Amino acid sequence: MMARFTALLALLLTAFAALPATAQTGPLRLEITEGVIEPLPFAVPTFVATGSGGQAAQDLSGLIAADLSGTGLFREIPASAHISRITNFSSPVQFADWKAVNAQALVTGSVDVDASGRLTVQFRVWDVFAGQELGAGQQFVGTQDGWRRIAHKIADQVYSRITGEGGYFDSRVVHVAETGPKDQRSKRLAIMDYDGANVTYLTDSASLVLAPRFSPSGDRILYTSYETGFPRIYVLDVANVSRRQLPTQDATMSFAPRFSPNGQTVVYSLEAGGNTDIYTMDIGSGASQRLTSAPSIETAPSFSPDGRQIVFESDRSGGNQLYVMGAGGGEARRISNGDGNYGTPVWSPRSDLIAFTKQSNGRFHIGVMRTDGSEERLLTASFLDEGPTWAPNGRVIMFTRETQGEQGQAGLYSVDITGRNLRRVPTSGGASDPSWSPLQ
Amino acid sequence: MLFGGAFTSEPLDFDVAKVIAVSSEEYAAIVARSNSPEQTSEIAPLAAPDVPQDVPDLSSEADTAPDAPQPDPAPEAAPDPAPQPPTSTPQAEVTDEAPEIQPPSQDMAAMVPQTSPRPQQRPAERVAPQQVEPPAPDTAVDDVVREQAVPDEAAEMPVDEGEATAPEAAATEIVTEAEEVEQAAPLDSIRPKTRPQQLRPAAQTAETAQPETAQPETAQTEASSDPAPAPATDTSSVEDALAAALGGTAEALAPSINAGPPLTAGEKDGLRVGVQNCWNVGSLSSDALATTVTVAFEMSQDARPIEGSIRMLDSTGGTAGSASQAYEAARRAIIRCGARGFGLPTEKYQSWRNVELIFNPENMRIK
């Protein structure tokens, strides 16, 4: 009886729903919860050249496209597939031609080199399928030898307008450049563009140097040197390469320094009497403060972007684990809970994640976790990965990877925080210990 | 004159626009200003630090052979004597009796089978709801799968030759370098056991098997004797019928101007899949991936979206900037995949003329 009633009710409801005039009285409403993750196709036709800007136009367009493609978020549509040609920067864009080749974003521009050698570059970004401009057109003026920087700045603008977050192309990386065999390796500080171009050496190879770290404004670099026989912390001015040693105590070792977000304080590790703890020092006055006092080894401290917390590694519970404490010291809470040893934690500039090195089952990983230790994700796996550093926008991580064997060499790699787009950063020789600058 | 006072005329409406006359030179200047980029930034080249370019001295002295005492020359070895062949070849002893094979003991430890890695997805540049195998090397990549078109000489109208297309390879989730490989499927199987030496007599087996085969019949009889259980889905079946008739909870009907026979679930899924195949969130920021946007648009009768009608109705979970980015991605998806039409039934046009799509990227954040 009940079953018959149910069937009848269903029939009535179905018939009721099928009535033409009263069946559906609103817009069709659907929820889309699944999409695709793939590089967004874009086109950068060679910028229109005026004056003697022909070569510069080609170089600029090529570098902008390379910057965007290198993120893994974008895919360049090659010029051979273009239907339209941009011959005039001010002419209307033929969106249908760019839709036909599935270009979803389009970058147009012009390059002019005047008689004095000044380079003027204009560009626009277009949303092809919306048929409208993304943001406003912009112009950069500079010297011809600064064309790479102009290209990086334009690529940053394009990246920002499409993704909604800042770029990282107009940035630099300080690292330890390595030459020579593994057992007799010479090391010196070097600085380069994020893509490996424009390498400049900052120190000589007379003494061992380690762990360079950029200041928040990018004008200074902290690093550790064995110049005196003991590890000591130095501050180097990037503009004139002048340096000075931070005050220290005799018969101690100080290392693993990092700037605070305001650039006035340094947090570092100091070993004295066989015990390693974390200290802070005011750079101006040289006054230091001890933050930890456990008998275990506390090292690799890193400030949160708001300057209120410090993440560090410690072996106080046996193996190396990650802990977070207040910027003034005090009780620390453990945030890493997985198997293996954790080290070299670095707080993301976006405050949401902490990158770290993990050793587990004989392999090294670069990973990320939430600041409370949840949602741990391992991004890489190799014989030796270590020392992560964040891109200014918190989207990419650069780290050191060393290959196995006597001929093994250290190199720099970058990976997206999703684990995609793992690629080697081109360097002329061995390289390790990278530190990414802020946007310039 | 007679009716002059009765038919008074109302003054006609008219608009007044303030016009400024400009010369052609001034107009050209205004147009040129609107065409030129608005912001100008001076880029100063980075001053290279004045560094003494110290080239590390990596030269080393040439290796010299160590002075080691030379060993005395070994005495000449005496030639080996020639081997003597055996005088007679021993004959093998052959018997007609088969050798006795010792069966393995029953309590022999089982070998742990070697296992292969659990099958994993190949890393792909594209992450999509459905996994797609890589297309053939010569196949063009396209959203639509098409067989290669070959001109048919017998046909009245020659068919244009067209290349076969296939969708790009896709994985359902991001596969990182650090993915652990789990052991699962066995690579080899254990050698089967030998047959027992003494089999039971057939009759005895039949006797022992009989009660076992009879048991199900008894059970079946018992089961059939039980009264039929009351249908436990009475309430839920009513709810199911209601849900089916109303088309599901997620697709609730909001008051609007559509009026027509409803789409079937399959037709709705077709539209949903059609849009999600073009909804690319790969280049969205983290904030935009935390923003849900509701986008409304109108469609023409050939089931193509009218671009000018696409608008954002609502957004939740993000800032105005992230909502704008999320909306742009949603709009691109609607326009791109709607360019060929969504293939909806024309007779139900009034049901899908106005569409509201809720783009919820929650699932995409954890891919």
Number of helices of chain B: 6
User: Between the first and last Cα atoms of chain A, what is the distance in angstroms?
Assistant: 78 Å
Number of strands of chain B: 10
* Gap between N and C termini of chain B: 87 Å
Order of helices and strands of chain B: HEEEEEEEHHHEEHHE
Measured by residues with Cβ under 8 Å of the partner chain's Cβ, the largest interface is: A-B, 91 and 104 residues
- Structural class of the secondary elements of chain A? mainly beta
- Distinct helical segment count of chain A: 4
Instruction: For the largest sheet of chain B, list the strands in their spatial order.
Output: 9-8-10
Give an overview of the whole structure.
The complex is a heterodimer of chains A (440) and B (367). Chain A has 440 residues and is mostly beta strands. Chain A is 13% helix and 44% strand. The relative contact order of chain A is 0.09. Chain B has 367 residues and is an alpha/beta fold. Chain B contains 6 helices and 10 strands; from the N terminus they run αβββββββαααββααβ. In chain B, the strands form 4 sheets. In chain B, strands 9-8-10 form a 3-stranded antiparallel beta sheet. A two-stranded antiparallel ribbon of chain B has the order 2-7. Chain B is elongated. Chain B starts with 23 loop residues before the first helix and ends in an 8-residue tail after the last strand. The chains are: A mainly beta (440), B alpha/beta (367). At the A-B interface, α1, β1, β6, β8 and α4 of A face β1, β3, α3, α4 and α5 of B.
